[in-house]
Amino acid sequence: MWLIGARGSVATTAVAGCAAVTAGLHPPTGMVTETPPFTDCGLPTLSSLVFGGHDVMECPLPKRAEQLAAGGVLPHGVPSAVGAELAAADAEIRTGGPRRGESDGRTDEELIASFAADLRDFVRRRGLARAVVVNVASTEPVPVEGEDRLPASSLYAAAALRAGCPYVNFTPSAGLHHPALAPVAASSGLPYAGRDGKTGQTLLRSVLGPMFAQRALAVRAWSGTNLLGGGDGAALADPAAAAAKNAGKERVLADTLGSAPEGEVHIDDVPSLGDWKTAWDHIAFDGFLGARMVLQTTWQGCDSALAAPLILDLARLLARAHERGLSGPLGELGFYFKDPDDGSSSALAEQYEALVGFASRLRGVGA
Ligand SMILES: NC(=O)c1ccc[n+]([C@@H]2O[C@H](COP(=O)([O-])OP(=O)(O)OC[C@H]3O[C@@H](n4cnc5c(N)ncnc54)[C@H](O)[C@@H]3O)[C@@H](O)[C@H]2O)c1
User: Fold this and answer.
1) Beta strands at 52-55 and 167-169: parallel, antiparallel or unpaired
2) Which end of the chain, N or C, is less surrounded by CB atoms within 10 Å?
3) pLDDT at position 172, please?
4) How far, in Å, from the CA of 224 to the mean position of ligand 1?
C-alpha cells in the first residue's frame, strides 16, 4: 500500500491500525472488508500488507503516531506496541514533489518518472505482488482552467499508472480526474476508484437524502457546518480547497433528492479540535398539507479513525481487483466516496448492494 501523504493523520492511523489489528490488540471495527460478505473473496490479509509512500513532511511516523495518541486519535500504548511496524513503514517513505505553486526545477514529466521509479523500486525490493496507490495527501484547490502544470495529486496518479499500480483517490483533489489524464487512464488496463472518502456528514446525507425522497417529504433547505482542526482543517481553511470538498457533499443531495435544495455547507478550521470533527446539518422540510418541520443532526467523529479502516478496505479491494484483471473505474465502490463515478447511485443502501455484488465479482461469481 503506497500512501500519498504518508505522514498525515489518516495514513499514520492506517499503518498503526493495521499493525494493531494484525497483532490482535484491537478488533477491526469500521473495516467493512472484515464482515461476512467479504469472506473468501481473495482479499489480501491485513498481515500481508506492506506500507510505503510519498510525503513532503519530515516528521518520522513513530513520532507522528505519538502525536496522534496525545490527541486521543490512537489509543495510548498503540504507538509503542507497533513501533517496529511504524519504523518499517517510515523507512519506505520517499520525499514527494513540490506543493502547489512551488517548483523544485523539475518538469511534470521528470516528477512523474521519479515517483514511478520510487514505486517500482518499492515493489521490486520488497518482493511484492503489487502496490495499490492511495491518495490521502492534503486537499488541493480545484485546478484553474488553462493552468500549464498538473496539480501534485495528478502527477502522483499518473506515476501510479506508469508503474502499473491500481489507484484510489480518497481526497477531493483532481488526481486521475484531471482531463489531461483521461486518455492514459482509459488505456492503462488498471482498476481505479474515487473520489473523496465519505466518512461523516456526507455518509449521513447519503442515508437521509433517500429517506426524504422515498417518504415524499419535500426538503426546502439543507444547510451544514463543519468544525474541525488538524492538518485537514488547516488545508480546508483555504476557500478554494473547501470548494473542492463541498462540491461532493452537495452532489449527494442533488442526486438523492432530484434537485439541489437551498442551503450551503461551511467548513471552519478550529485548530484546538484537532482530528475531532463536529458536523451539524439543519434540514427544513414540508410534510402533508405543507406542515413545516426540521431535522437537525450532530455528528461528532474522529476523522482519522473513520477514514483509516476505509483506506485499508479500498487497498485490499483494489489489490484483488487487479489480481482478477479488472480495469477502469470501479463504480461499485461508490459506497466509499462522496463523489462516486458517473452513473453510480449516491444512496448508501444501493451503494452497499453494489459493493456486496462486487465482492461476488472478486470471488469469480457473476460478470
Ligand atoms: N475522515 C477523513 O479523515 C477524511 C475523509 C475524506 C477525505 N479525507 C482527505 O484525506 C486527506 C488526508 O487527511 P488527513 O487528516 O490525514 O490530513 P493531514 O494534513 O494530516 O495529512 C496530509 C499529508 O499530506 C502531505 N502532503 C501535502 N502535500 C503533499 C504533496 N504534494 N506530496 C505528498 N504529500 C503531501 C502532508 O505533508 C501531510 O502529511 C485530506 O485531503 C482529507 O480531505 C479525509
Assistant:
1) unpaired
2) C
3) 94
4) 22
pLDDT for residue 304: 96
Do 251 and 239 lie in a common domain? yes
Assign 100 a pLDDT band (cuts: 50, 70, 90). Answer: low
What is the rounded distance in angstroms from the CA atom of residue 268 to the CA atom of residue 279?
A: 10
Percentage, residues of the chain above pLDDT 70: 99
Decide: pTM greater than 0.90: yes
CATH number reported for the structural domain that contains residue 278 in this entry: 3.30.360.10
pLDDT range class, residue 99, cuts 50, 70, 90: confident
Q: State the Cα–Cα distance between residues 10 and 295, nearest whole angstrom.
A: 31
* pLDDT band with cut points at 50, 70 and 90 for residue 285: very high
Same domain, 98 and 137: yes
- Asked if residue 311 and residue 298 are part of one domain, the reply reads no
Atom of ligand 1 nearest to the CA of 8: 21
Helix (H, G, I), strand (E, B) or coil at 96: coil
Quote the pLDDT of residue 14: 98
Q: What spacing in Å lies between the alpha carbon of 36 and ligand 1's midpoint?
A: 31
Q: In what order do the strands lie in the sheet with 2-4?
A: 93-95, 52-55, 2-4, 133-135, 167-169, 191-194, 328-329
Among 87, 107, 84, 82, CA closest to 97: 107
The structural domain count of the chain equals 2
The parent domain of residue 49 ranges over 2-197+305-363
Cβ of 196 closer than 6 Å to ligand 1, yes or no, is yes
Q: Return all residues near 59 (Cβ < 8 A) that are at least 6 apart.
A: 7, 67
Residue 16: HSE in the Cβ half-sphere, 13 Å Cα cutoff? 29
| Dihedral sign for Cα atoms in the order 128, 110, 140, 104 | positive
